[in-house]
Amino acid sequence: MSLLKRKKNDAVENGAGDAEAVAKPAKGERMSQAKDLAVHHGTHKSIDVAGWVDSRVNATGIFTAMMSRHVPKGTNWFYTLGSATMFIFAMQAITGVFLSMYYTPSATQAYASITHMTNDVFMGEFVRGLHKWGASLMIILIFLHMARTFFFGAYKYPRELNWVIGVVLLILTTVMGLTGYLLPFDQRSFWATIVANNITASGPIVGPYLADFLRAGPDFSATTLSRFYALHMMVVPGLIAALIGAHLFFVVKLGTTAPPWVRAGRPKGSRPEEAVTAGVARDDFEEIPVNGAVAVAAAEEEADAADSSDSEDGEVNS
Amino acid sequence: MSDPLNKNSKQGEEPRVKLPPAEPRGYFEGESMTRRHVFTVASQAIGGVAAAAVVLPVVGFAVAPLFTRGEERWEAVGPVEQFNAETYKQVVITETPGIGEAGKTTAYVRTGAEKYNEEPNDVIAVSTRCAHLGCPVRFVQAAQNFICPCHGGVYDFEGKRIGGPPVRPLDRFQTRVKGGQVELGPRYSVTNQLKAVRVRDPGEFTGGIWEYLYPPRPSTFPPPSN
Predict the structure, then answer these.
(1) Average pLDDT for residues A205-212, to the nearest whole number?
(2) Is the complex ipTM more than 0.90?
(3) Are the beta carbons of B134 and A108 separated by less than 8 Å?
(4) Can you give the residue range of the structural domain that contains B63?
(5) Which one of A198, A204, A209 has the shortest CB-CB distance to B202?
(6) Would you say the pTM of this structure is higher than 0.90?
(7) Which residues 62-81 of B are in CB contact (within 8 Å) with A?
(8) CA distance A176 to chain B (A)
């Protein structure tokens, strides 16, 4: 119902029913009044929770922009490796929070608390197992995701910044591995941390100070464990979450790339002979869509494998 | 010819009130900054001070251990008669208190031997921390060598490296005899000529230019004078 029509109805009702207005309006009536108000303010979508939120922050718009994007032809299962990595990160975050309910970051009690949570607590072995195996799985998935990006040429202009963020995420994930490895505080994790710290220390000039910072002193001490715990629990996960946000933002903003074996099309509306120079034209962001994926999705033909070696195509694909 | 402050005046028409010339735009007479610029700089400065008031103490809090030296610890390991010059005796000392077993370390102790130009009254305490990456070495009686289980580092009787990846001899502990008891004090590192230097982490070379590439840390104790 259009705004104008609704307003007319209001006028009719108000004019006719002054006497009835004294009576308490029924529930349905109150709802419709609220609806009228929303309509009056021009914010009305529908009166339910989603609509209420939507009319204030446009959640549907954000969701649509993220989830129903154009993707290029040839998108395949390799494109899910990034999401898989993010899922494992979420799993690590959730299981980690619950593990921290039983863990004691103290040099004298850490090992006992780990054995307690593993052997005595209901499902403890399973939750700890998820966290432990998930750690290895996350590293594996990151490298597979990185390999996909590399071999598909998806790191090229304009996505170099996202590659850089991805590398920082890889480094932070290995820092998670390093700091998490000490926490069980058995012989293996203790000596592995000693060795890792000494490797850090063997870097010239800054190495000795960096090792002192990690250990919180010249030797492994009580503070070392709590320091690693704080890095593992708070600092690094926070940085990773923030950078994943930036990583996703760029994926949504720039779109995904076509696989190298799919030949790029020309921007919509261009004549066939212009396709040859499309790579040049695409440098100009004012004339063609910013979202590379849109242009690629508009491709009319798929190329055979031989075409993918074409340098012109490579540039368009990136 | 057009006055920038009187955009609304019609072309060619003389504005009724003549404003004072203000060049460049946005500046008032006698001012060297626009007001917008003044407020931008001021709010950024205040925000910077507020951020620094939080960040600097926190960073200092985190890096304080780099500049803090712990208490000097001396621990008695037995009467001096227990030790001889021919072979090492294994002792366990607490290097870092408060963390149980993890704070303990093993040392090998003997008295000075003429063979190595040492005074008979000297007590030598060799650390078991491998100079490669910090694994614990053990003294093998038959071979008279220190051997590291991790990557195969080998040291001779004096603790000098004779094989494997270590970069310098084994560290030592300062020693003294007090009331007939041998006491072990702070750790120190040695050069290949067994000259005492301030303690370095495993993996760091000692002596010569390495003393500058691996600078001594303020969190460690000064070495004994040779």
Answers:
(1) 94
(2) no
(3) no
(4) 1-68
(5) A198
(6) no
(7) 62-63, 65-66, 68, 70
(8) 19
